[in-house]
Amino acid sequence: MNTKNTDNNHPKARKGILGKLRNYFMAGILVTAPISITIYLGWLFITFVDDRVTPLIPKAYNPENYLPFAVPGIGVVIVIITMMLVGALTAGFVGRVFNRISERIMNRVPVLRGVYKATRQIFETILSKQSNAFREAVLVEYPRRGMWVIAFITGTTEGEVQAITDDDLINVFVPTTPNPTSGFLIFVPKSDILPLAMNVEDALKMVISGGIVTPPDNR
Predict the structure, then answer these.
(1) How many CB atoms lie within 10 A of CB 188?
(2) How far from the centroid of its chain's Cα atoms is residue 22's Cα?
(3) How far apart are CA 8 and CA 58, in angstroms?
(4) Quick check: is 38 in a domain?
(5) CA distance 137 to 75
(6) Does some domain include residue 170?
(7) Closest CA to 49 of 69, 72, 70, 65
(8) pTM to 2 decimals?
(9) 119 lies in a domain?
(10) How far apart are CA 20 and CA 202, in angstroms?
């Protein structure tokens, strides 16, 4: 009798051990996967910038010519310093004159002037401290009543779109999963928008994860 009981307990013991090993494996993935993916994406970005900026550095000023190993991130540092210098020069008289001349040149190029104006306006709107673009997450009924999507307010509707409608419209950007940089613009009546208490970062996490990551209710 004891032998039979021992034999019957073996499968349960094996299942218990396999279950623990599986849990350990999943816990290992949960810990290492986010760190590994973040480091990998960061390394890809640094390598992408370095490969394009480092060859432009004169050999006399390139530290890699004096060191026995490569220094990752030099290109990123140079780009940041360059952007700061350009911003500082633009604030001065010479920079303002150069900016006016470059704008006049770009505005005379038939095809590129449209791209230049649109790109400049987008960056000015997003980077403006007074701008509310992409600073508020909301819920919008889409693609039909009873179905909701997370979206981001990009501004108040103006111009012809607002003039030919009776409702007060809001510009809303609806991102796609898992790539939130792609999406589409819709004009939604202000009364049909439900503001969310979650911040934009938490809303983006929910969109990117396809709903797997759900932020807590902080209302």
Answers:
(1) 20
(2) 33
(3) 75
(4) no
(5) 34
(6) yes
(7) 72
(8) 0.59
(9) no
(10) 32
Query: Cα dist. 43→37, 73, 111, 182 in Å?
Result: 10, 9, 36, 23
The percent of the chain in helix, strand and coil, each rounded to the nearest 5, is 60, 15, 30
Helix (H, G, I), strand (E, B) or coil at 48: helix
Domain that holds residue 165: 137-208
What pLDDT, in 10s, does the model give residues 48-74?
998 888 888 888 888 777 777 777 888
Split into its structural domains, the chain has a count of 1
How many whole angstroms separate alpha carbon 190 and alpha carbon 210? 26
For residue 145, the 8-state DSSP code is T
Distance (Å, whole) CA 124 – CA 116: 12
Question: 172 — phi, psi (to 5°)?
Answer: -130, 130
Mean pLDDT of 91-112: 80
User: Can you tell me the distance from the alpha carbon of 151 to that of 136, in angstroms, rounded to the nearest whole number?
Assistant: 9
Give dist(CA 15, CA 9) in Å, integer.
10
Is residue 150 within 8 A of residue 198, CB to CB? The reply is no
**In the sheet that 148-156 helps form, which strands lie side by side, from edge to edge?**
183-189, 169-175, 148-156, 137-141, 194-195
